[in-house]
Amino acid sequence: MADSKLNTNKARFKPLNKEQRDKCYEAKDLYFKYCNSYEKEDSDDCIKLNEHFAQSCPESWVVHFKELRMREVEYQKRYDEYKKQGYNVE
């Protein structure tokens, strides 16, 4: 029974064409360029950019890109912290 659910979900997903992928990546890049700090996330502009990002990309892509960005931010925080403590992080 689980297999039939998997097949149904798979059948509903349509791969994006190049134009749709380009639109998605452009929306993602714009969102992260201007809204990459928690201070800005609640601004009207970032809310609109987030909505545009969510409408331009499949939901699974939005989740993936946001998780990836969170990991990058955490890595940068740790990197900066270690460097501040005098560790050789180069």
Automatic annotation (TrEMBL):
Gene3D superfamilies: Cytochrome c oxidase, subunit VIb. Keywords: Disulfide bond, Mitochondrion. Pfam families: COX6B (PF02297). The keyword Manganese does not apply. It is found in: Mitochondrion. InterPro entries: COX6B-like, CX6/COA6-like_sf. Its main location: mitochondrion. It comes from the Eukaryota. Belongs to the cytochrome c oxidase subunit 6B family. This is Uncharacterized protein. It comes from Rozella allomycis (strain CSF55).
